[in-house]
Amino acid sequence: MILQSIVSGLAIGGIYALLAVAFLLTYRVAGVLNLAQAEFVMIGAFVASTLAGSAGWPLFAAALGGIAVAALVGALMERITYRPLRNGPHASMIIATVAVGIVLQQAAHLIWGPDPRSLPSLVPNVSLDFLGARVSTVSLFVIGISIVLIIGLNLLLGRTRLGLQMQATSVDSDTARLMGIRTGGIVIVAFMIATGLTGAAGVLVAPLFSVTIHIGMLIALKAFAACVIGGFGNLTGAAIAAFGLGIVESLAGTFIGAENKDLIAFALMIVFLVVRPQGIFGSKVGEKL
Amino acid sequence: MRGGLEVTGIVRRFGGVTALAGVDLTVAPGQVRALIGPNGSGKSTMINCISAVDRWDEGTVVLDGEPVKPAASAVAARRGIARTFQTLRLFDDMTVLENVLVAMHHRRGYGLLAAISALPAYGRAERDMRRRAMELLEFAGIAEHAHRGAGTLPYGHRRLVEIARALACDPSLLLLDEPAAGMNDSETVRLAELVQQISTQDLSILVVEHNMDFVASVAERVTVLDNGHVIADGTPAEVRVHPDVLRAYLGASEEQR
Amino acid sequence: MTSTLLAPVPTAPSRLSTIASWAIWPVLLIVAVALPAIIPGNYWLQVAVNAEIMIIAAVGLYVTFGLNGQVSLGQAGFYAIGGYTAGLLVTKIGLDYGIALVLAVVMAAAIGLGVGIPALRLKGHYLALATLGLGQVIALILVNWTWLSGGALGVREIVAPFFGFDIVKISDWAILIGILTVVSIYIVQRIRVSSYGRAMQAVRDSEIAAAAMGVSLPKVKVLAFVVGAAFAGLAGALNAGFVTYISPGTYDLALSVSMLAMVVVGGSRSPWGAVLGAVLLTFLPEWLRAVQDYYLLMYGLLLLFMVAFVPKGIWGVLQGVIEFVRDRVRRAPASVEGEQR
């Protein structure tokens, strides 16, 4: 029972982790809190669902298609919100990302209509027997992919030239520019990676819920909470907090009842903001991403 | 006379760097003292400590016999320590007059309820504050710009707004952090005259400046900092020829080669 | 130091402007009370009353965000607290609606205080996130804690006399809410021109300088936050009495966003901007009924456009035009009374 709960908690935690990491990446490199993140979940899911369904693409290709479109829209968003507003007051940027979210959501509504769509899972849903608990392959797949993607991102940031340039930009973009780093390009790449990851989360989560324009909302909000709980200093910290949140929620749902489970994320977020705003792992800004 | 400042043994470290390594500084009530030194000597850090914008690791700051609490600039301001900023921090989206009025907020003399109900006491207090603020703007020579947005003024005028705003705190100690920075010669002369006029009031002044002519024309005594230490203290004339001072400035310029 | 290089100085307002600045209030009161007579038909009167309720919430948010620069994405939460406090007091205890209204405002202000004090350490982004989370928590509590709130079904039949008077007809509500709306704008304008308003703006423009000039950052920020919460609570309570039915679904993130949008689009530099924004964003969906499906999309695009290209909002544009005209009719040199519109 507990094991089952933990596994499904890790699965949804994996989704939260992808979103948390994406959110934090944009924030650290570009200084933008992307409050339109939920809509990129939606884009990934909707585009993949259309490619797989109406266009008849193989699932894997449809998934990649969804991710690619999410990344492209992310680049577009960078042009429309970050570029013109980066030197203005915080409030403008926050409102702009919210506005983008509304536009994306409504555009999707107009393009795809109100009916929920479906997206089958990339792996067949088989119930495995694992240490006495029934565990679904879909959950394991989600957990696996999210861990792989996050580790991949960490490798990118730590081992590649691009990644190091991103780290430099996130620490001090003015100095980075003076050192010859094309920070403008770095920011676009950061946006695209972040929204691509979010799109991937959309593809992963779509089989678990029904694909409506609201699919990303609650998940994205909880990912924000995970960032606060883990701390804005470190992607790994945020990911760990996100996985943890998924487990806590799942256990609470199993043992205390499902009604209040959603509250946990936000209650924890508020508690941390009040008591320890730097999160569990601390926001040592200036250290590694 | 008020404005007696006694700073004893101030130490301020930032990580591995010691910005101030045990600095003593005194300003007698009513005096004008200048604080000079090469770049990075700790002058601005000193001002930040004295104005309690920053905290310090060791030492004391005492104004007119009462200690100043670190990192509590609002409290220090209410006690009578007012300052301008090296990097100019005006309230750009407010008018010049409003900028000055903000410094009178803690002595506004009315509560929120009185303001909302427009009681006569509120009207009187506002009129008095505005009159006083206009006097200060006239004193600084910028009264004609009272209703202009502070962000729209030319640089030299903005510096004057900051000074008028600081004076509106009714300070016993006025801290000027590089007030002449970026000013041309005629503006600097005019500024020196202004500071001289201010010094005739019941307050003391501590000026951080690079411009030695300016310092010579306003300051009675000069303290010289280098690398967080006081290396000289005397009249402008004495300090100008002090060997340690010359070495510090020359040394700094030698490193630049 | 001459000013020949600078544009003509904005001077003290003319005699006309000074008279207008106090005459506007009785005029607005008359208009508000006469609204039922002016507006044809109950439907549009209802829309107008909804706009007035939104005006109350928006001018409150103007204080928090416009004057003090704090981005709150959780105003719907305080709106909900106001609505539910009034609604529950009326239906569960049978309290007079007028008293319930007062208590609702007090409750919203109290929670605003409880939130505002810890929120002091949060800046910009973190505050936005915190208020976002707060809004979510409140919405979730209202849905899930059925024993308190009646759950997803909400609260019905919020009907009670207002300090003894029965307020039944829409026109009666219009008069009551209209008066309260004008009073709200008045209060906010008075805050704005007082030293409190200046202190709030100073904190917005430069916290460091404001503190160095003696302004108590905690007091000012908490005050601005509480004022915003109180007005949102008042609006929510009025909404509960007017519509007589409330449910958790109303108080979502979209509502918080639209309240912020009202201030931004209307103009965050003046309470009149908030008024304009509230009216516009309440009537717009009605006028655009024909293209209903596209309304939200256009709303999002409008918001994006305004934030990027018209940061001072519609009111800012209007003010620019007025100043341009006024510069053509220049008068006496600067005097002591420079009042803002």
Q: How are the elements arranged and paired?
A:
The complex is a heterotrimer of chains A (289), B (257) and C (341).
Chain A: H1 2-30, H2 37-52, H3 59-85, H4 90-112, E1 127-130, E2 133-136, H5 137-159, H6 161-171, H7 173-178, H8 183-205, H9 217-230, H10 235-255, H11 261-275
Antiparallel strand pairs in A: 1-2
Helix pairs in contact in A: 1-5, 1-8, 1-9, 1-10, 2-3, 2-4, 2-8, 2-9, 3-4, 3-8, 5-6, 6-8, 9-10, 9-11, 10-11
Chain B: E1 5-14, E2 17-27, E3 32-36, H1 43-50, E4 58-63, E5 66-67, H2 73-79, E6 81-83, H3 96-102, H4 112-116, H5 120-140, H6 155-167, E7 173-177, H7 185-199, E8 204-208, H8 212-218, E9 221-226, E10 229-234, H9 236-240, H10 243-255
Parallel strand pairs in B: 3-8, 3-9, 6-7, 7-8
Antiparallel strand pairs in B: 1-2, 1-4, 4-5, 9-10
Chain C: H1 15-38, H2 42-67, H3 75-93, H4 97-116, H5 124-144, H6 146-149, H7 170-193, H8 195-205, H9 207-212, H10 217-243, H11 253-266, H12 271-287, H13 292-309, H14 313-328
Helix pairs in contact in C: 1-7, 2-7, 2-10, 2-11, 2-12, 3-4, 3-5, 3-10, 4-10, 7-8, 8-10, 11-12, 11-14, 12-14
Structure description:
The complex is a heterotrimer of chains A (289), B (257) and C (341). Chain A is an all-alpha fold. Helix content of chain A is 72%, strand content 3%. Chain A has a two-stranded antiparallel sheet. The mean pLDDT of chain A is 87. In chain B, a hairpin with a 2-residue loop joins strand 4 (58-63) and strand 5 (66-67). Helix content of chain B is 39%, strand content 23%. Chain B starts with a strand and ends with a helix. Chain C starts with 14 loop residues before the first helix and ends in a 13-residue tail after the last helix. Chain C is globular. Chain C has one domain. Chains in contact: A-C, B-C. At the B-C interface, helix 2, helix 3, helix 4, helix 5 and helix 6 of B face helix 7, helix 8 and helix 9 of C.
